[in-house]
Amino acid sequence: SRRRQNRGELMLLYVNGDELSGGAGAVNDFVSAGDDIQHPASGNTAHPDNLMHSYGFYLSRLLNLGLRCEAVQRKNNQEIYDSVVDFVKHDLPRLRSVHTVVVIGWMPGVEVSMLNRLADKLEQLGIQFVFFNTKRPLLQSTKLTFSNYLDLTDPRLCFLQWCKDHGYNIKNDQYPDANAHNAWAKYIFGRMIEVL
Asked: 64: left (phi > 0), else alpha (psi -120 to 50), else beta?
């Protein structure tokens, strides 16, 4: 699902997080591709039908970037962090992306030091990024060493709460539907272009 730009240059939106960022339940009841008998070898990856209706997919279209999504069911934020660092260190140089945007939906309880370390790494590499919380905000007293498009301490800017506040459908009280993902993508996009 990587799209090359007209000059043959790769420009990429890289999405990571837990299954919410992979679009779990967006258009069907599957959390992972491996839950569907049509995709038995896909394991823990995002279900392709849901991925095509995830905020990452919609945002990649708004930004006119190719999409790479590594958001899957995770045990904790350390797994998300390790996956992003591995991608930036090993995969991104091989891909030769001329412009990369990283979007991460963090699970509850993310360590501030982890956010600061990752933001610092991405800034050093000249990679634009957007961090947000899926379910719970950071404490108001949190000391972040980077600027972010969304306020990580605002409970109204957690993905699930934002969807509820704006009247979008949350399946089983945990999975935003395709319309919610589309609206969240537009919201993130709006925040990004406000700053430009």
From this structure: left
